[in-house]
Design a protein that fits this description.
about 120 residues, alpha+beta, Aminopeptidase, 4-stranded mixed β-sheet, about 25% strand, globular
Length: about 120
């Protein structure tokens, strides 16, 4: 993988969300705990997406943890979702979970809101 092509997107995600560090994502991908998906348009990286599969009592879920890229091309970023769905089905997942901003509901019309993530500062 050419880390220098995806790192700027991951650094932006890190800075905006304070959820995962770019180095942590890289280490998790190298250890096969997370998967890195790259969106390309006109021979340039326009965004990255990170997935992670985890187990629940209902079955395995493929979670999209990070999505970062050029905001002017969100449709191109979500175009690869069918590939991710195929990957998740192939891994035996029962669902795709998307954690992100409310606006993603418009871009993924077959997604159903099943909960709310709340955070209390301590």
């Amino acid at each position: 993988m050419h880390w220098e092509l995806v790192e700027p997107h991951l650094r932006r995600f890190e800075k905006e969300t304070l959820l995962l560090s770019a180095e942590g994502i890289r280490a998790n991908c190298e250890a096969l705990r997370q998967q890195l998906w790259i969106a390309v348009a006109d021979s340039r990286v326009i965004g990255v997406l990170i997935t992670e599969i985890y187990s629940t009592l209902r079955g395995s879920i493929c979670a999209i943890w990070a999505l970062a890229g050029t905001q002017s091309e969100p449709g191109q970023l979500t175009a690869g979702l069918e590939e991710i769905r195929k990957f998740a089905r192939g891994k035996g997942c029962i669902a795709l979970e998307i954690r992100g901003r409310k606006g993603w509901e418009r871009l993924i019309p077959d997604a159903k809101r099943v909960g709310v993530i709340l955070e209390v500062a301590l």
